[in-house]
Input
Amino acid sequence: MYRSLLVPLDGSAFAEHALPFAASIARRAGASLQVVQAHVPVASFYLGSELGADLTLDATVRENEAAYLDGVVKRLTENIPERVSRTLVDGLIADAIHEQALAVGADLVVMATHGRGPLSRFWLGSVADTLVRRLPMPILLVRPQEETPNLATEVTVRRILIPLDGSDMAEQILEPATALGRLTQAEYTLLRVVEPFMPPPHKLHEPLFDRLAREAQIYLDGVAERLRGQSLRVETHVVIDRFAAASILEEARVHAADLIALATHCRGGLPRLLLGSVADKVLRGALTPVLLHRPLAMTK
Output
């Protein structure tokens, strides 16, 4: 499934933490990898002032950005035998990256959730958030670490946690998640968090909670059976909790998940996953990378 990867950068070491993950996927999938940086004209930082457009400074900044990307490509090609390229695009950061991802037909966008650069910045709630809402292809968000990323590091995904809510739209995460997992023969945990309308279980509520748990388990068993028919190793887990995001993060910790994969907008039964709520909280709280995908019905 993954033949073309796109990695947005901003010139910072923080943003480069997406590169080891992307490089590992490219190596295993034999995919092409393109690094892209958005060039923001210097003049746009001085609107309303007498400075105007300093073309000399802007040209210098552009040259430095191009040289930086050339250096990244050189470092990547030392470890990836497949095709590696770079592109410097113009325009508003999120818009320019979105257009480039569509133009190259990227199957997957891999980026850090936080980054810092002299003229641009990536942080959850801004560029990353905008791309998650708009991109029609999956996006893999990696939380940067303090140490400098090593591009030769082989990132291996051994266990993937997939929260589902019982809807067909939520299940659209299964294809991109299993495509990524097949590269490393990963195991999968399907999770259904049932969010009750009422407070935590009480003796008077036990029959209702038992029924909800049984229905959720039946649903997960059906999905698991389909995946096992594809020779995938799958286990299931049902949790009844009013706080879905916290439950997902706890399950990721307990099951030592290397990746959480979920749809950004879904509806189905009692629980729901949507950006700005559960998915947003998972992104902000996850210590592991998060694979997000907008269901087709939500793309524009």
Observations:
- The longest helix spans residues 55-77.
- Residues 4-142 form a domain with the Rossmann fold fold (CATH 3.40.50.620).
- DSSP finds eight helices and 14 strands in the chain.
